[in-house]
Amino acid sequence: MGIPSAQAQKVMMFPFKNGRNNNEIENLWQFFHSSLISTITDERFQEILRQYGVGLVKITEALFYVDPETYLPINGPTKPYLKQVLRVDPKFSTWQEYLYIISSVKQKSNSTVFIICNL
Predict the structure, then answer these.
(1) N or C terminus of the chain with fewer C-beta within 10 Å?
(2) Domain coordinates of the chain in residue numbers?
C-alpha cells in the first residue's frame, strides 16, 4: 500500500541498446547517486527528463524507490491527495519546484513523505 507501481511495459527509462547514443544508463546511475547525496541541479534534472523513457511521473516514482524518506512520487494516486487534502499544487517542471512540493508536504503533514504515501 502506498508504493507506486509502474506499468510493466513502460518501466524502462532508456532506449534499447541499438537506440542508445548518449550514455543513457550511466546518466541514470549518476542521477540516482546524486539523489542520495542531494546534489541534483535543475540542469541535471532537465537533462534526465530529455532522456528517452523518462518523464515527471516516472522519475519521481524512481526517486521514491531510491529514497522513500526523502522523495515523493507525484503520480495519479498522490495528486488528488496533495490537492484536496494538503492543498499543495502537484504541478512542477523543475527540480526546485519538485523540492518545494516535498517541503510543503512535510510542513503540512508534520511527518515524513513516506508516511504520507502510505495513507
Answers:
(1) N
(2) 11-117
